[in-house]
Amino acid sequence: MTNRQDIYYWKCDRPSAFFALKDQHEAMDVKEVQALLLPRLIRYFGIDLVQLVPATGQGNHLTFLASAEGVAIFVRLENGPEGDDFMEIEAHVLREIRALGIPVPAVLEVDATRAEVPFAYQILEYLKYPDLNALFKLGKLNITLIARAVGENVARWQSVQPSGFGPFDPEKLRSENALVGLHKTYRDYFLLNWEKHLDFLVLRKFLSQAESDKIQKLVFDHQHYLDIAQGCLVHKDLALWNMLGEAEEIKAFIDWDDTISGDATDDLSLLACFHSGEVVRAALDGYESVAPLPEDFLPRFWLHLLRNMIVKAVIRVGADYFEKESDFFLIGTGSSGATLRDFTKQRIWLACKGLENKKQIRDL
């Protein structure tokens, strides 16, 4: 068992960073996984005739579809070398926000103990809808309507206000059945591995040392905005590929495995990692239909956009995303990895200008 005390963001800070992004199918043969999963699924269904096939996806988990007597379920598993047990945390979060009316898959079973199998797994409700990024790339998504719905739901799940900050403590969950962040202050969490991330980007020549120094100074000058007294639930990977649905409706928010107790502007800033000011404005309108925007919204928004873009740059550089083609989920139709690299840099500097009071939401 492990916790995420030293993790700002799992995909770039885990001990075997980029393992799940580049080599996820190498640690254990898929057929071996299927053989180990099948007895658990037979027990779940209560019958022997269970079909189990790999599911398609570009995420950081192995996924399968299982079916028996016309009933289908979705299975996710974590088989990284760290023995991460955050699937238990995620399942708790899904159950809690589902009770609030947030559209998320039902959790049918979860086991992160590795007592019976050498991996953690979840059995989830199977929702037969595409991810919204697939519809977006085809030009079939009403992005303004969807963005408004995103904002509404972000405001709703922020009503969950755990103690502490950052990733949640699995031991506290087991002993107290409560979400408790692993850090005492939000500043401690926000700045965790900050210099390490910037140094990596300098080493890999994505940023110059002078650029890194400028970004460091901007964050230092605005770090007082990190002194928040109470955290709220943050998805932390809010993007269209983590939503299932139709052209004008979100059926489920998925992949809560990076969820934290954090700042109310964080999830909203994540939308700005990908979308225009018009889309972000629609999300803010949706948010404000449920709750007022947080105090000091703009500087906190730009500060979190900058932090999130630095993390995304680390992942994209480390996992060779800039070498991908347009069939990759992050890259738009007709674009390339080079386009993604340019966009990543542009958003970093836009966030910097926002912190300098030189940009507004409409400038995204």
TrEMBL record:
Aminoglycoside phosphotransferase domain span: 63-286
Species the sequence originates in: Dyadobacter helix
Full protein name: Aminoglycoside phosphotransferase domain-containing protein
PANTHER family in the cross-refs: AMINOGLYCOSIDE PHOSPHOTRANSFERASE DOMAIN-CONTAINING PROTEIN (PTHR21310:SF15), AMINOGLYCOSIDE PHOSPHOTRANSFERASE-RELATED-RELATED (PTHR21310)
Gene3D superfamilies: 3.90.1200.10
Lineage: Bacteria, Pseudomonadati, Bacteroidota, Cytophagia, Cytophagales
Pfam family, one: APH
